[in-house]
Protein 1
Amino acid sequence: MDCVRAKIFVAGSTKSKSIRIPVALFGVFRWARRIVCLGLILLLLQVGTFFGYNHFLQKATQQHENLREKLAELSVESNRLNDKMVYYFEQEDLLHTKAGLPVMDHSVRELGTGGEVLPEDLFLRSVSQSAALIAEIRESTERLENKIALNQSSFMSLDNYIDRQQKNYRNIPSIAPAKGRYASAFGHRVHPVTGQIGKMHYGVDISNDPWTPIYAAADGVVQTAQLSSSFGNYVVLNHGNGFLTKYGHMTRYIVRPGQYVERYQVIGYMGNTGLSAGPHLHYEVWLNGDAVNPLAYILPNDHAIE
């Protein structure tokens, strides 16, 4: 075996001692040094990994806690929105009742969403509070979306119904067709010109100065605009739904048959034409072929059905 000779001198003495060291031992020393250095490196890596892991773990834990708090806030907000939808449904039911429409079955609004919950989802909900909150918020959101969609559909139907009714109301006579004094009522009377006793007066007379404007009592179409021996210059408006209004003794009418007119539109001017004892408007309202008292279709204070 190859060896290396080494002398060892004792301090303060001339004596020395020679020893032989195998060359192979130096290789063992070199490997031992490498192993120690590698061990130190691994130790440093382990320490760094430990502190890094703790840092990221704390950060992830904090983020998870923040997420959980945010989810809890969203859950509270979702419940608040659901309570608000309950209020809107109550208002919707009230509007339906006022309009004489059937109220929607409440159970329809509470229909469930989604389908069968998968086992893995159930497991996540059982082991993770955040997963359970997420699932709850998702389901609550889907229910709200369904309720909002139903609410929008219901309000659209209600709006269409009210719009149709609004158009119908526009065709119901509801204003005084002229300003002035009511000179003769609806019913039997003595004719002021012919003197006939018990003559049926199918309208009311409104007296005022000549050329006082005469207005359409509701939206409609001019059915007649002509000169009559008894009514003089007169106009008949067809409002639909069985309603007709008649205006007589005008100085002049300014509409033509087939013309569409709107409530408050001037159709002529007060006069004294035909069998008339003075300037006035003779005004009649007919419903389904029968004359009715026009005063029942004149709202006070110049209000109108809109």
Protein 2
Amino acid sequence: MAEVDASRAGPVFEWDTPLFRMAHTQFEQALPYAGVSDMVAERLSYPERAVIVSVPLRRDDGSIEIFPGYRVQHSTVLGPTKGGLRYDPEVSLGECAALATWMTWKCALLQLPYGGAKGGIRCDVKTLSLREVEKLTRRFTSELVREIGPQSDIPAPDMATNEQTMAWIMDTYSMLKGYAVPEIVTGKPISLGGSLFRREATGSGVVMVAEQAGRRQGFELAEKTCVVQGFGNVGGVAASELHDRGARVIAVSDVSGGFHAERGLDIPGLHAYSAEHGSLAGYDRCERITNDELLELECDFLVLAAREDQLTGANADRVHAAMVVEGANGPTTIEADEILAARGIPVIPDILANAGGVTVSYFEWVQDLGRLFWDRDEIRRKLADKMGTAFDRVYSVAAEKEITLRQAAMVAAIREVAGALEARGIYP
């Protein structure tokens, strides 16, 4: 992986991690094709703002524990920043910086009036009671009250956070302001101003672009074989949508491992089992396989919907998918990208494939601001239009420049932000 140039890195050392270096390298690989000025390239190389807070929690047993919390805002050129909050033992400033950077490109590619942000708390929610998670969330919100806001930075759910987490944030922020502010977060319960179709949006968007990519190759999804890594909000929804379109989902995985049936899995049955038991552990109506084995299965579409760094230089040469679709952020390393490109396996990049979530988050924000709400069919139709337009732009740039789909998506996104930054200039 390319190293960050320390002679021009500025404050990069604060978030210099492998994941941020990956995001930075993707940016630098796209720059020669983007045709932007040195000023734009330098300004967009690193986040505008990063905040680290210590979040005290009084545990149920009366003890006090301090957790580190982060919020990184990559760019405010196009508008307020937008991005998820995750609760995970691996959360770090560098991880948040990388994910915020990708969110900027994602929003720009979908032509949303946002920049990218990401944040979270380094913790293991499995060791916390529900009451402790609530107290941690409310205190974290109060620590960030000067950083977030409906016109400055709008959080959303991410890893180990959900509608309930957003409800606590919305309530805490509203209590501090003295009036209800539903537009402070997206991904809320419907009763608090959440949007219909928000939970399904990312997984549905993944399948929308996979379907369009298939049509570019001259085939439909029906009867095509699909492997889905991850069975949560993204992978689980993607698997259902693929199944509903007639595709044959031959393997899925969750935290308990992989599940394989060459004839096709019973996706509704898997969902029912997971809902009843909390995971797929113990499901015995198909073959059990490892995560490594799942990634190497022969299939038409490999959907990566778990987490980063899944395809690497060590396993990319053993991938037997006709196409890779990134439902997660950063699941394919720089080395793996190069190997897959050399083997002629196209990768639909994360900033395009999983942009359905932030797009419907934008719809939710707009609905909250106007206090006027749309039905599910209208939202799905608007999402399909946005995803389709972005998809066409990416393929057009890829054909024009003769570059990979990831590079094309980055070029289209960089140009979008660059146009606004050139017009605005550098203050003062």
Protein 3
Amino acid sequence: MFTRLRSDIQCILERDPAARSAWEVLTCYPGLHALVLHRLAHGCWIRGFKWLGRFISHLARWFTGIEIHPGAKIGQQVFFDHAMGVVVGETAEIGDGCTIYQGVTLGGTSLYKGTKRHPTLGRNVVVSAGAKVLGGFVVGDGAKIGSNAVVIKPVPAGATAVGIPARIIPSKSGESADVTAPADKFAAYGITLEDDPLSQAMKGLIDNASSHEHQIALLWQAIEKVSSSQRGEDCVPLDAARTECFEAEKLTQLVGK
């Protein structure tokens, strides 16, 4: 019990730069309190004390603002950061090392009892603020869910899901997080500009347009040289684009690097 508690405190110290000491984490972090109370509630639940488990989870919700059903399964070193308004359903499963931010819902879309209604998060998944993961599917190891995303289908390992409904951005390496080299530092909220599909599409269009203008300028310069050497005169139109004026860098800065 105490070994697991120390592990939980250490993972918070590693992921939250605002955490100054183990004592501060132990006394002032509702995410840690919610985890400890959930383990007590879950222990009652699996031993058949259903009402007691629900009552403990109800008290935990009142004290921490985090609602975790006692039937949910939570792994080790899970960090609920801020976490006010988090809801975790009965059949949800959260793998080791996951980070869940405020306003997240791990909800179900089925009304049938006894079925897998809520999502399963693999290892080291980051679910950003306000995201809703709805359904009994799997979010793979190392996946990231963007802020306010609404995820209604499986997310492959290492991929990123953003938008409403969520669009899946494949992993750059194409491999699961458990076989790729770990990041040097924990990425808070899990999302960077590189994970925005619209921004990446705009950058691609800008690069393509810039390349076309460069090729056109080279073609007119080549035509100018050929015409001058053969006829001794310039037959290239005065308004021909012999130089590049496309401000690719400026446009790229506008959509974000």
Protein 4
Amino acid sequence: MPAQVERTVITRLKGGLGNQLFQYAAGHALAERTGSTLLVDTSYLEHRPANMDWTPRDLALDVFNAPLMLACEAQVKEARRSLDDRLARWTARLSLGIGKWNVLMEQGDDDLARFKALNAPAYLEGYWQDERYFLNVADQLRGHLFQPREPVEGRNAEVLGKIGAQVSASLHVRLGDYRTNERSAAWHGVVDPAKQREWALELVEKYGVEHFFVFCDEPELVAAHLALPHPHTVVAHNVGTAAHWDIYLMKHCHHHIIANSSFSWWGAWLNPSPNKVVIAPARWFNGAERSASLALPPTWTVR
């Protein structure tokens, strides 16, 4: 096997910005541990079948400092061919350790142990929504890699100044396809706004929060939906490819109320303060068995 293949990790990207950050973080952690080069597979993002029932997404990571090198079509085909071969061998109850690529598909409770034992060359297929996959590179992610490449300016600089001038908290309301897409609504669902108001009151009374900065993918609906009785600012100007600036602003707030969303998960996690309070919903999936606590750091508060 060529040396360049032996020292390669490919992570498959799918979903929106928050999900892509998880997939990159896990890939980078594995690449660092194995002394490998990280490549990203964008084939799922580019696949737009006529009957697709999920929200189409584009590559969203090119706004950060993190190096972004694309896996070529031949590399992806080779790795995924190995994936198909491994599934066939598993069905036949033969060894999974044969093949050029070490392919890891996210499946269940033993994923973390299998990830920690994985060697390069490796191909990652999953969401990896747990900080334990990338704690070994946490300082890199927070300190440089997941920082915007462009300087903060304009309205974002103004909001950043207001965030730092008072005891602030971010509050994320996830609507969008959680509200309008049948598949997303059935799987996730929207967090009860009454609960988010209760959590806001808790931050005011216990931690002295003076002002909330509200982030929402449908800002024109959030005032009526949330009906927040505390001083707050709805941040509505970072749309489309500027959405990463909302994560940047979230991370600079003192405390956080997140939705059942990987987007605000990152806004809270990237805040390096040991004194931050993060309140998250206990139900991450609507009607599902899986608990949100599997993806939430142990210092966060689950309600």
